[in-house]
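QA checklist item 7 of 12: single-chain prediction sanity check.
[x] sequence parsed
[x] length recorded as 78
[x] structure emitted
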Amino acid sequence: MKMKNDIVFKSKLYEVRKSMNLTQVELAEKVGVDVQVISRMERNSKNPNLVCAVRLAEYFGITVDELFDGFKNSKDSG
């Protein structure tokens, strides 16, 4: 059974990759994974391990939470 965050992650990964005009091959090279890993994540057949999630978030300039939740966290609220 797929969780809501799985679907959000799949959509967010695809959306951010496309907005940066990157192919799956280019993104895979940038974060140091095989292109099949990116493909499986976008098809929602594989979730990233923690290291891969951190690499993706750092490359995209967002938090890991944003990758899975789809919402920008406000660090200045307080």
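[x] summary fact logged: The CA atoms of residues 9 and 15 lie 10 Å apart.
[ ] second reviewer sign-off
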